[in-house]
Structure of Gamma-aminobutyrate permease:
Amino acid sequence: MKENSNEEPNGHVQRGLKARHVSMIALGGCIGTGLFVASGSAISQAGPGGALTAYVLMGMMVYFLMTSLGEMATNMPISGSFAAYSAKYVDPALGFAMGWNYWFNWAITVAVDISTAALVMKFWLPNVPAWIWSAIALLLIFLINAMSVSTFGETEFWMSLIKVVTIVIFLIVGTLTIFGIMGGHFVGMRNFSIKQAPFVGGVPAILTVFVVAGFSFQGTELVGITAGESKDPQHSVPKAINEVFWRIILFYILTIFVIAAIIPYTSHSLLGSSATDIAISPFTLVFQRAGLAAAASIMNAVILTSVISSANSGMYASTRMLYSLSNSGYAPKKLGETAANGIPYYSLLVTTAVSLLTFISSIAGPKLYMWLVAASGLTGFIAWFGIAISHYRFRRAFIKQGHDLSELKYHAKLFPFGPVLCLILCILVIVGQNPSAFASFDWKQILVTYMSVPLVLILYIVYKLKHHTKIIPLEKVDVSPAHKDEDLSKLNEK
């Protein structure tokens, strides 16, 4: 294989992502149906005030999580970073569990997104079988990810840009509608005070919306994955974290506010908004209130682009995680091999095979589709939990071993408050996700809601018992910087 400035020897991914690619991949990965569609259900469940509270709190948590990740990713920028950080800074067994958990999360999410793409296409061509659109979407995603990483980055950049421009236009149109400049009448803030608004359902409702907000924000951690293929991670990762966070907060909070101001939380359209009812988007409803006749078709096209972009990022993330698991000795060695263009093709093929679940979903109907959504729901919070505890241990070990913070390229904000807050909120959301299911002993709902929790525990316990791993003492934690994908198999030694 020929080597150039972007290529590394066989077995390593390429560092072909530019700073703008890293920013847009992280931004694009978390702007999808969670914002364009499911945001309506968040407002209907907790009211405008409750939805805003949930998104603001989740935004704060994500901010601290991103800075924690940034500190580790600039110190050790590798693909599939979360498994490596958990293994190096906490316990090899935790790295094993977190890595497979994250791969499972995104592999299933790709299947969900591709199923959603088929539902979007029904808006225009309702008589064409859904599996055909799913097959086309999956093939497209596969081909994009099979090309060089720079091609993937460029494709994701432009798809993400479409979403960003749409949100900006939406905020402008929405603001004009609130003040009556568009739509014919002044809306103002009256929908924030109708019936039980602004807070509906109290704290339990906010907690319920918390996971909707969390699912919407998931994807920001892709910065850690892309660090391994960034040309200049010490520069691009901090830049991406600072830019992406403020953009997301700006987009999400203002978007929720505009929707809540124009559409009352009692609207049946909001009550019906979910990822499985793609035709009902709060964005479409707001554009229609503003008098834009072609709103439905335009928003449907944007949502389709959004879903493909999210699946594209998901395929990338899950493929790189599987590649990292192989390099860490946690998965078959074959999965760590790369082609001449730096793509871990075996990992890509295995992940694509898992995403074929979408065909079963398309044929079996919405029930299995909802099971797939549920299966990937809490795994994102578990991954965030792993990032937070890894950073807490990393920083404590770094100081304990006599290092100075000036040695780090990027500093996480408000340590240890940041990672501790993330740990507490993640546990709160995971435990309190569906307490009513326990109260009524509804074991089916318990399984659907919490199935990812026992999966991670089983992975952790089995690996720990098999390899007799222990939590690494702080004085022995390896906090040295790295710039290549490392073979972490030495951590698996007894």
Observations:
- The chain is about 65% helix and 0% strand.
